[in-house]
Amino acid sequence: MQVSGLDKPDQISVGQAAGERAPDADPVADATGRAGSTGKFSLGTLKSQVFARIETLDIAPDLGADIGSKRWFRGLGTFVGLSVVALAFWPDFAPLEAASPLPDDGEILGEYHSQAILPLALGADTGRRMGPSNLVRPLAEAPERPQLQMLATLGSGDSFERTLLRSGVGRSEAQDILSLVERAMPLSELEPGTQIDITLGRRPAPGASRPLEELKFRARFDLELAVSRLDPGDNLTLSRKIIRVDETPLRIRGTVGDSLYRSARAAGAPASAIQAYLKALSAQVSLDSEVRETDTFDMIISHRRAATGERQAGQLLFAGLERGSRQPIQLMRWGKDGQFYEASGVGEERGGLMAPVPGRMSSSYGMRRHPILGYRRMHAGVDFKARHGTPIVAVTDGRVTGAGRMGGCGNAVRLRHGNGIDTRYCHMSRIAVRGGQSVKRGQVIGYVGSTGLSTGPHLHYEMYRGGRSVNPASVKFVTRAQLSGDELQKFREALRKIRTVEAGAALEDLAPTADEAAEEGPKREIDKLNMPQQVS
Fold first, then answer.
1. What CATH number does the domain containing 393 carry?
2. In terms of residue numbers, what domain contains 321?
3. Which of 37, 140, 353, 394 has the least CB density, counted as fewest CB within 10 Å?
4. Number of H helices, E strands in the chain
5. Span 322-349, mean pLDDT?
6. How far apart are CA 226 and CA 237, in angstroms?
7. Domain M23ase beta-sheet core: where (predicted)?
């Protein structure tokens, strides 16, 4: 029995591939992408074919590669196109117009105005029918207030008389008030900012000035003046009220901490007093390196407190610094010039030489060729370049030993200072001192010129020590005053007394005396409504 090739597995597989569909075959499409013999459509297969096609597209070429090629220009075009589309969709932030919250109709707006709740002085009314009509007639004479109260302030550069006239006081009464006030104090002592309470009465006739009923102001910290009439029509009279003032100095102590200035401000010291304290202290120690955080600052300030409650802080009187085991610093203001002296009676150090004129040095000390004589000779000083007429000042305290014409120096001034030091100032256009006169540091002694052997306006400045010429740039003056005798004893007694002041004692309110308590009447709430009107 002959068997065909059916018993060969390989032949069976081939036959199935040729005629029959294998179990795992795709019923939709063959290798060419056409639909299978069954005619059914598969969405998944189509999606795969679309994604495969997209992956083969070169949509966004790398602009960093193949620069200048067709592919690069195509990528550039894609980039520009996408940018244009993005800008086209850029949001617009312009404000949206909305309808007006109020109607445009004039009649309705008038109704809103009539029903608004506003003061009558600002134009409000009580209803639509309250506007003026043809029946309204102006008054022949408007009634006036029987009394006017105002508060006038004396401005800087203003006068007491102009302030009164501006407030409505008549000229004749203003003159009477000035004469009365001048009996109590000079008008020049009135400080800017003084507030004047003025009360004016009823006009005696239409168009006439209102008569003064009462005028009050704080003339000084310890004095209050009042001008008034005993009865209407009487003459003006002046009354003085002396205010009790306590002048116990204000003592402020505290730890330096991170910042001496901020610590002192936090303790309640005025800024001006702290600046004076730092200036006095810096003449003794270095504020950056010698003042520690654990040190204690001690300052005493002149302070006045009135029985009426006002307070007034003045200048710094004492500057102290406690530095633990190190020597403490004690400085007190003393004398007419207000210098600070150490506890030993030594005054504060007053810096080195001042520049005689505000200008740069144009020629230094030493040998040089003379610009006029034409040969080399010793230039026994320094030249300062300055304009004609510039003030020349003394470099330190001294006495004038010569003032006048001095040969090639022209108009000159010679000063003698301590420790055998002399200075001379040459080529002046005008001399401002005379022989034998004492001058202070910084005092004007003449003016820049070009007299004598000079090629132009400048100052020739010389210095001599023991009669021999020295380079002025090499010398530095230090002036320290020294108390002695009775003055030193008074100073030490005042220092001992001022150091007994307790810290913060001046901050307590003064207890009223029996007379002050009797004058202080009960305060009513209704009196608070009767406030004077400000006058600008």
1. 2.70.70.10
2. 250-349
3. 140
4. 10, 26
5. 81
6. 8
7. 377-472
Q: Is 128 helix (H, G, I), strand (E, B) or coil?
A: helix
Alpha carbons 384 and 361: distance in angstroms, whole number: 4
Query: Do 255 and 266 contact (CB within 8 A), yes or no?
Result: no
Neighbour count for residue 279 (Cβ, 10 Å): 13
Q: What are the angstrom distances between the C-alpha of 220 and each of 192, 267, 306?
A: 12, 29, 11
Q: Report the half-sphere exposure of 190 (CA within 13 A, side-chain side).
A: 26
Judged by average pLDDT, the poorest of 8-17, 42-51, 155-164, 289-298 is: 8-17
Average pLDDT estimate for 411-426: 90
What's at 1, amino acid-wise?
A: M
- The reply to whether 367 and 404 lie within a common domain is yes
Give the CATH number, domain containing residue 322: 3.10.450.350
Q: Give the pLDDT mean for 239-261.
A: 90
Q: What is the pLDDT of residues 389-410, one digit of tens each?
A: 999 999 888 899 999 999 888 9
Buried b (16+ CB within 10 A) or exposed e, 433-453: beeeeebebeeebbbbbbbbb
- What distance in Å separates the CA atoms of residue 84 and residue 128, rounded to the nearest whole number? 61
More confident residue, 192 or 366: 192
Same domain, 186 and 277: no
Q: What is the pLDDT of residue 97?
A: 74
C-alpha angle 3-4-9 in degrees, rounded to nearest 5: 110
Query: What is the percentage of the chain residues whose pLDDT exceeds 70?
Result: 78
Residue 465 lies in a domain: yes
237 and 318: one domain? no
Judge if 311 and 412 occupy the same domain.
no
Residue 238, H or E segment = strand 237-242
List the structure tokens of 3: 């068997």
Report the number of distinct structural domains present in the chain: 3
| Residue 502 or 379, more confident | 502
List pLDDT tens digits, range 445-472. Answer: 999 999 988 888 999 999 998 888 888 8
Query: CB-based contacts of 419: which residues, under 8 Å, 6+ apart?
Result: none
Which of 22-36, 54-68, 120-134, 410-424 is modeled with the greatest confidence? 410-424
Token readout for 138 is: 């102006």
Q: Exposed (0-12), middle (13-18) or buried (19+): which is 378, by Cβ within 10 Å? A: exposed
* Whether 428 contacts 410, CB under 8 Å: yes
- 502/123 Cα distance (integer angstroms): 60
- For residue 199, name the pLDDT band (cuts at 50, 70, 90): very high
For the four alpha carbons of 58, 62, 66 and 67, in that order, the dihedral sign comes to positive
- Tell me, yes or no, whether 450 and 466 share the same domain: yes
* Pair 223, 288 in one domain: no
